[in-house]
Inverse folding.
């Protein structure tokens, strides 16, 4: 199976946290739905970097978010867009 490409669109997050996000996505890539993947990513970030994280995973979505400084990542994993941010 070919590994899906990662493409960072926007980041206000340390490289270490970005690497964790990528590892988490790869770890949960077999999630059954986009919702399941978003839940898995959110829970993992809540555990590793303290609550409260939010995550959206999908092929098409729009958003307007507020986030804690240096705690936001928007990237593509294959055809899926993933938006991850800490919201207080």
């Amino acid at each position: 199976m070919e590994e899906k490409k990662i493409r960072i669109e926007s980041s206000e997050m340390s490289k270490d946290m970005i690497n964790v996000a990528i590892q988490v996505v790869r770890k949960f890539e077999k999630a059954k739905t986009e919702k399941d993947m978003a839940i898995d990513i959110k829970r993992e970030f809540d555990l590793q970097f303290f609550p409260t994280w939010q995550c959206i995973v999908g092929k098409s979505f729009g958003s307007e978010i507020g986030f804690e400084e240096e705690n936001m990542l928007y990237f593509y994993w294959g055809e899926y867009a993933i938006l991850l941010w800490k919201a207080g």
